């Protein structure tokens, strides 16, 4: 049984979310503020985190940064902040998805299940290893290295990079990248894909691997510098 940590300072919202998840067979753990969220995460080692942004004792963005320092667990933001810039910031700090309030509990549960399907697909024994220049990826173990040095990627970033690596040299449009990073998932906006690609490209450049090429008006591909 997979465990989900639900973090929100509104007890009613926690009740609604937990009920919807338990109905789908998930175990739930709750936290009502940012500080207790980190404590419960360390205590329970959840498989996924649903995280509000506007909370006392550390907001959701700060909590996300803290968790991302040591973990690639999927993080879904659930927030009343619905401006495009808020969604982009949530993805920039390491979130894998962003859902605005008011929300549909059924849709939220569906997105949680989609995150786990992605996780299972990447962990499948049939998943292959791929290499492109200094980049090596083990899709079964969900690891990526540049010249042997490990890359720290979120699940979405790993999915995007794996999709590009599977189609080496071919230009992929944003819909194709979304299908690879979110298999069986909802349609995501071009801005969302661009935000994830920007963070992924920055991480690659930090280790001296400028491998993602933008083909203006079309999409992205892996290319040797």
Give your account of this protein's structure.
By secondary structure, the protein is an alpha/beta fold. It is built from eight helices and eleven strands. The protein has a five-stranded parallel beta sheet with strand order 2-1-3-4-5, sandwiched between helices. The termini are far apart. The model has no long low-confidence stretch (mean pLDDT about 90).
**N-to-C CA distance:** 45 Å
Order of helices and strands: EHEHEHEHEHEEEEHHHEE
Gyration radius, rounded: 17 Å
- What's the mean pLDDT score? 89
By secondary-structure content and strand pairing, the structural class works out as alpha/beta
Q: Hey, roughly how much beta strand do the residues contain?
A: 15-25%
Detail the poorly predicted runs. none
* Main sheet record: 5 strands, parallel
Number of helices: 8
Could you estimate the helical fraction of the residues in percent? 40-55%
Physical arrangement of strands within the biggest beta sheet: 2-1-3-4-5
Based on DSSP secondary structure assignment, what is the total number of beta strands?
Answer: 11
Q: Give the overall shape, derived from the CA principal axes.
A: globular
Please supply descriptive tags for the structure shown above:
four-stranded antiparallel beta sheet; 225 residues; 11 strands; alpha/beta; 8 helices; five-stranded parallel beta sheet
